[in-house]
């Protein structure tokens, strides 16, 4: 079987990276226990979104990834330090749940991989309640006539491709409470995203502005990519991974097909660039700008595609995932014990906060590596 043989071929490298991850993160888990990191300072030490001096706070959309990363490592190693830090992160995020104005489309990033992971791994009922609360808030953002989940809180007419990654929280909630409403909302949004956010060539639209009465798209917006009509690589990776996750939860073939379509575009864009993901696949060649977070997210989706597709299709996706991870590990990873981050060269948006460590880069890089070890725990 190709999948098993290819993993065996790369086993030494996989084991080496897992050991490096555990060595570094077991230290950082203790040192950053009271933090909600986003990036690092000039010395490579975690910042925290709890510090008013940073201009950020507990409601920042990435705050679930640090604790989520801790749950990934706890599930793999059983090290109690990871569990303690994950639980502390969850407690710190209660300030987010209790601030209605902060609740938006990113509740899965905030709670599903954190409180949701806690419940699935430990049976913690308080964590289950947190995740259900967040899922209900996400479902409440669904526009009944326009058939999309509203993004952000400043304009009611916007949908974004990022929301595909938050839909698993709704699938989970439907299963937990035995009510299909959440699943139906998730699928309606995914159906819209196939129609409006995925172009015929597999490239991805980041932001759509809808008529809020009938849902038709009035215009598409630049978002975090290079320009209107370009393809922001992290947006493509949200789609690639998000659609295969929706397929895993629903078995609807349209979602599998959408993930494959985006994957082909993503693979093509990376294969011609040394397997290092540019921040936008349609940006000018200069200045050279990468986004490692896009590669890590996409690798997760590519591995899941390789697991479910027929034998003849597996090589394309699994080889691409490993090629991206190996290229980024060689060029972008930092294993020095004096620093807190692992994956560097992340980029917030084209031309903004370029080539910095970002916490979800570490999260998805680790998730992808652990998938290659055969871990059956999928936090989504």
What does this structure look like?
- The structure is a single chain.
- With 380 residues, the chain is mainly alpha-helical.
- The chain is built from 15 helices and 5 strands.
- Strands 3-4-5 form a 3-stranded antiparallel β-sheet, covered by helices on one side. A two-stranded antiparallel sheet has the order 1-2.
- A hairpin with a 6-residue loop joins strand 4 (207-210) and strand 5.
- The longest helix has 21 residues, at 11-31.
- It is globular.
- The two termini are 26 Å apart.
- The relative contact order is 0.12.
- The mean pLDDT is 96.
Short summary of the structure?
This protein is mainly alpha-helical and 380 residues long. The chain has 15 helices and five strands.
Radius of gyration: 19 Å
**Largest sheet data:** 3 strands, antiparallel
Instruction: List how many beta strands DSSP finds.
Output: 5
- Shape type: globular
Q: What level of helicity do the residues show?
A: 40-55%
């Amino acid at each position: 079987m190709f999948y098993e043989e290819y993993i065996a071929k790369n086993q030494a490298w996989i084991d080496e990276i897992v050991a490096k991850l555990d060595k570094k993160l077991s230290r950082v888990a203790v040192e950053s226990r009271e933090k909600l990191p986003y990036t690092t300072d000039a010395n490579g030490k975690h910042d925290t979104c709890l510090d008013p001096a940073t201009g950020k706070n507990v409601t920042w959309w990435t705050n679930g990834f640090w604790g989520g990363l801790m749950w990934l490592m706890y599930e793999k190693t059983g090290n109690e330090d990871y569990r303690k830090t994950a639980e502390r992160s969850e407690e710190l995020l209660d300030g987010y749940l209790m601030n209605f104005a902060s609740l938006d489309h990113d509740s899965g990033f905030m709670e599903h991989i954190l409180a949701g992971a806690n419940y699935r791994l430990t049976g913690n009922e308080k964590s289950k309640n947190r995740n259900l609360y967040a899922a209900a808030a996400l479902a409440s953002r669904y526009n009944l006539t326009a058939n999309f989940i509203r993004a952000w809180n400043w304009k009611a007419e916007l949908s974004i491709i990022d929301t595909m990654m938050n839909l698993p929280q709704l699938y989970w909630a439907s299963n937990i409470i035995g009510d299909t409403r959440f699943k139906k909302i998730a699928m309606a949004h995914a159906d819209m995203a196939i129609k409006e956010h995925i172009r015929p060539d597999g490239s991805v639209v980041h932001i759509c502005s809808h008529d809020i009465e009938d849902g038709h798209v009035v215009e598409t917006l630049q978002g975090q990519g290079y320009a209107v009509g370009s393809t922001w690589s992290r947006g493509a990776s949200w789609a690639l991974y998000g659609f295969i996750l929706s397929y895993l939860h629903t078995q609807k073939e349209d979602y599998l097909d959408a993930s494959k379509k985006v994957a082909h575009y993503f693979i093509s864009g990376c294969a011609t660039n040394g397997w290092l993901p540019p921040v936008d696949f349609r940006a000018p060649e200069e200045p050279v700008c990468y986004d490692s977070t896009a590669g890590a997210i996409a690798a997760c989706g590519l591995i899941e595609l390789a697991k479910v597709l027929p034998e003849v299709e597996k090589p394309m996706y699994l080889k691409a995932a490993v090629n991206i991870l190996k290229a980024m590990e060689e060029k972008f990873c930092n294993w020095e014990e004096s620093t807190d981050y692992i994956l560097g060269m992340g980029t917030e948006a084209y031309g903004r906060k370029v080539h910095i460590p970002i916490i979800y880069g570490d999260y998805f890089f680790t998730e992808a590596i652990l998938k290659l070890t055969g871990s059956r725990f999928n936090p989504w």
